[in-house]
Amino acid sequence: MEEKKFLRPRRKRVGEHAQKPFSGRSEHRGEHNEHRAGEQRAQKPFSGRSEHRGEHNERRFGEQRAQKPFGGRGEIRSESKSIPVKEVVRLNKFIANSGVCSRREADTLIQAGVVTVNGEVVTELGTKVNIYKDEIRFNGEKLKGEAKVYVLMNKPRGYVTTMTDPHASKTVMELLRGCHARVFPVGRLDKNTTGVLMFTNDGEMAEKLTHPSYDKRKIYQASLDRDLRQEDFNHIMAGVELSDGTIAADDLQYIDATDRRKIGIEIHSGKNRIVRRIFESLGYEVKALDRVNFAGLTKKGLKRGEWRFLTEGEVNILRMGAFK
């Protein structure tokens, strides 16, 4: 009768479920599914696309669920490996690695004629330079390869995500007092959106985290002006037609079973104001929008306006592309 011992579900340890970080699409398997199939199934408050509701969704789309800086597809451990440095690289990559801007923005600067190599203006894209022998200047200032810096901020409301803006009263760069490295924002959050925002002087990393082809996920909490109807819930999951194409959410949840104005939405698109535009296209006003997860990074432990440097482990995971 050896088989009978497999029919009895193992009891969960206290706190085991709360410490399991959220990974986006449903990855609740094995023991968790046995638990759901038993005593909790009868308690589900609402049946939308997913059955994960109530307190579970508050943890899933908020900070309470994340017990580690990264959440999702398991913790990845790796040993550091020595990677040989390339002496000859593309000019836009050198500029980006100097902390001026991203590689795409560097191409714009090159074409604008504000970059010189050994005293000569270079406007041809794809130009290669020797990082040890060539002298590269931007607006007359000599560029040097800088140590890579990675910063995570919990952006507050009312700050514009830009390096400089003569029309903005406050920019996110003003909050980085104490960070002496020259960094730039990775992607952007609009003025009234709060939450996870990353900064770096690593142009190659910024490219991987923002370019659509790399498909990095983002999770938001949205507070609407009224309850989200089931019909519109289904519409968002199927795809909403916007002026720049059709967009569908990767996942959508009612965070609070008693308040259908609070929505958790996961999306990969990095288009401008995409979450707000999705809800606005269906006649809803987004009263508050908070990004709680960006490429696996959360704002756990950071108050509004605070920032910290990423750990070496977090940076290695981002470099490996382990989190979508």
Question: What does it look like?
Answer:
By secondary structure, the chain is an alpha+beta fold. Among the domains are: 88-142, Structural Genomics Hypothetical 15.5 Kd Protein In mrcA-pckA Intergenic Region, Chain A (Roll); 150-320, 2-Layer Sandwich (Pseudouridine synthase), CATH 3.30.2350. Helix content is 20%, strand content 23%. It has 8 helices and 16 strands. Strands 7, 8, 9, 10, 13, 14, 15 and 16 form an 8-stranded mixed beta sheet that branches. A 4-stranded antiparallel beta sheet has the order 3-2-5-6, with no helix packed on it. Strands 1-4 form a two-stranded antiparallel sheet. Helix 3 packs across helix 4. The longest helix has 10 residues, at 31-40. The two termini are 44 Å apart.
Which bin fits the share of residues in helices? 10-25%
Q: Label the CATH architecture of the domain at 150-320.
A: 2-Layer Sandwich
CATH-assigned fold name of the domain at 150-320: Pseudouridine synthase
Beta-strand proportion: 15-25%
Summarize the structure.
The protein has 324 residues and is α+β, with helices and mostly antiparallel strands. The protein has helices spanning 31-40, 54-60, 91-97, 103-111, 203-210, 230-238, 274-280, 312-320; strands at 88-90, 115-117, 120-121, 128-130, 136-138, 141-142, 150-155, 184-186, 193-200, 218-224, 240-242, 245-247, 251-256, 259-267, 286-294, 307-309.
